[in-house]
Amino acid sequence: MKNLILIFTLLVYSVSLSAQDYAVALNSNSRTVSKIEKGLNQFTSDILLNEEFKYRDFLRQSKTSKANFYSNGKTFTKKELTKLLRKSARSSGTYKEFQELLENTYPKFLRVLSDDEMHLLYERFRKGTFNAYIQNLIENW
Q1: 95 in a domain, yes or no?
Q2: Where is the secretion signal located (predicted)?
Q3: Which domain range does residue 50 map to?
Q4: Which of 100, 98, 82 is closest to 90 using CA atoms?
C-alpha cells in the first residue's frame, strides 16, 4: 500500500511538471476587445429593446451617463455616440449610406452588430427626423 501511494504521488508530480511545457499564453488584448464589444452591445440593446424609442429622451439619459466607448484611439461618450448615430441616420438617405458612414467613423459597429440590428438601429434613429417626415409624406400622398 505504501508503494502504491508513493507511485501515485510521483506520477501526479511528474505529470504536473511536464504539463507546464504545454501551457499557452493568452493575449491580453482579446479581453479588452470583448469588454469594448460588450459595452457596445449594451448600448445598442438599450436602443433596440425599447419599442417606443425617442431620441430626445435617450439623449437626455445619455448626458448623465459616464460610459465611454473606444474606437481607433478615439474616445466617445454615450452622448457623443448617440449624436453620431442620429447625425448619420439624418444625413443618409438609405440604409447602405448609413452603414458606410458608420464604417468610416466607427468601424467597430459592423463587427459587433448583425445586419438586422444595424437596420433596426437605422430605423430607430431615422424616425422623427425631418427627412423621414418628408419621405413619409411623399410616399403616402
Answers
A1: yes
A2: 1-19
A3: 29-140
A4: 98
